[in-house]
TrEMBL record:
Membrane topology field: Single-pass type I membrane protein
Domain Protein kinase: 141-428
Region (Disordered): 418-447
Protein name: Rust resistance kinase Lr10-like
SMART domains from the UniProt entry: S_TKc
Alphabetical list of Pfam families matching this protein: Pkinase
Gene3D superfamilies: Phosphorylase Kinase, domain 1, Transferase(Phosphotransferase) domain 1
Coiled-coil segments: none
């Protein structure tokens, strides 16, 4: 037999002897410590195998055989470690990771649901509620108490389940188109301002449409400022009248500057100013309103309408300027002059023809007299009356660029009369004879008549 064969048999015998000893070591450790100690037993038995091979290395015919054995055992150790990590990852780390992932998903979904619910609750508080028509019938008590009527329909008083009183505008389908309805809901649906009437809800069910407003028990402003000629029988004190004017101005200024989108009302007039229990004013009726970006400077003429006597000149002809927020300023100026004069700006029943057009007459009076003057039944003009008139005359400048913005109007109303300068002479307050002025007014009225005036309504406490 060759020496190589003898060496191979000797090496094989040594290897099997050490391997059997390692197997016995593994079996003993596993039996004594249980299956959970299998990784430890495996490492321990392999170490025992290496010790055995090291002790018998002198008997090996090939001296490098032990080195090869160590390398092989090291590779096996690495493979076992990787296998152990894989088993741990699959049977321990994977379930733990899955549980953590499920817990995170549950938590995040729960938080997400809370955020959505909070958003929906906030939206429900801010946005008007949609009612079905049977709800409208129940709220009004089968339309039992009518508050008023007009071209757009009827207004009824009602009460919600919470006990809150509301005014419900039932719209006539032929008179109130879909665009006006959308304007009304979208414009004031999200507005929350002390001087803007609040839209509580709406109804749109087939051809039946209704708008549910907060109830304004004192009705509209026109029935108070036109209730008596002159200043002696006014229902409001001058201080109160100034507060009402200031409240209206703040409401319009909020529409122009306080919202995400600039809101142009296009129908400011006494009839659309409602009063609460304490005669605090609120701007209402946004059927003609339009929404524009705050930096939007060009408004289409075709998109605008208004009421004769309050509509700005640029809404008739671009020769007077562009249509903008200054158009509402003009309407407010006409409103302010009617509040100050206690009469409509154009009153053909006046005995004195010079007083037919109030803005022209009051401008002449203010321009010709630096001190106290007597107007309206020989009553001395009040300081606040002078201030309201001056601010109103600033607002009705024919060129829109010459009018102040609403925030400037608020500032003027909050200030003293002495700080107000006399405005330039408006177009209708020229020095021409009275007959020429009336002719000019009539021709302008004919031009304005091309813009239809829709009959409106107000509601008051019965």
């Amino acid at each position: 037999m060759l020496s190589w064969d003898v060496g191979r048999e000797t090496s094989s015998a040594i290897f099997h002897e050490c391997l059997n000893e390692a197997k016995r070591e593994f079996a003993n450790l596993t039996n004594s410590k249980g299956l959970l100690s299998m990784p430890y037993s495996l490492v321990k038995s392999e170490a025992n195998f290496l010790y055995c091979m090291n002790d018998m290395s002198d008997m090996l015919p090939i001296k490098h055989y032990f080195g090869y054995t160590v390398a092989v055992v090291f590779v096996i150790e690495i493979v076992q470690l990787l296998l152990a990590l894989w088993m741990l990852g699959r049977f321990i780390f994977a379930p733990i990771s899955l549980l953590i992932l499920l817990a995170y998903n549950f938590w995040s979904s729960h938080v997400s649901i809370d955020i959505v619910e909070k958003f929906l609750r906030d939206q429900q508080m801010i946005s008007p509620k949609r009612y079905c028509y049977t709800d409208i019938i129940a709220i009004t008590g089968h339309f039992r108490e009518k508050l008023g009527q007009g071209g757009f329909g009827l207004v009824f008083r009602g009460a919600l389940l919470s006990g809150q009183h509301v005014a419900i505008k039932i719209l006539r389908n032929s008179q109130f188109n879909g665009e006006d309805f959308i304007n009304e809901v979208s414009t004031i649906g999200r507005i929350n301002h002390v001087n803007i009437v609040r839209l509580v809800g709406f109804c749109s069910e087939g051809s039946k449409r209704a708008l549910v407003y907060e109830y304004m028990p004192k009705g509209s402003l026109d029935k108070y400022i036109f209730s008596a000629r002159g200043t002696s029988n006014r229902p409001f004190s001058w201080d109160k009248l100034n507060k009402i004017a200031l409240g209206v101005a703040r409401g319009i200024d909020y529409l122009h500057r306080g919202c995400d989108m600039q809101i142009l009302h296009f129908d400011i007039k006494p009839h659309n100013i409602l009063l609460d229990h304490h005669f605090n004013p609120k701007v209402s009726d946004f059927g003609l309103a339009k929404l524009y970006p705050k930096d939007y400077s060009l408004v289409s003429l075709s998109a605008t309408r208004g009421t004769i006597g309050y509509i700005a000149p640029e809404l008739v002809s671009r020769n007077f300027g562009i249509v903008s927020d200054k158009s509402d300023v003009y309407s407010f100026g006409m409103l302010l002059l009617e509040m100050a004069g206690g009469r409509r700006n154009v009153d053909k029943t006046m005995e004195n023809t010079s007083r037919v057009y109030y803005p022209s007459w009051i401008y002449d009076q203010l321009a010709q007299n630096n001190g106290i003057i007597e107007i309206n039944n020989n009553m001395e003009i009040h300081e606040i009356e002078r201030k309201l008139c001056k601010v109103g005359l600033w607002c009705i400048q024919m060129k829109s660029s010459n009018r102040p913005s609403m925030d400037k109007v608020v500032e003027m109303l909050e200030g003293d009369t002495d700080n107000l300068q006399m405005p330039p002479r408006p177009f209708f307050s020229s020095s021409q004879p009275i007959s020429a002025r009336q002719s000019s007014i009539q021709s302008t009225s004919i031009e304005l008549s091309t813009i239809s005036e829709k009959e409106d309504y107000s509601y008051s406490d019965k």
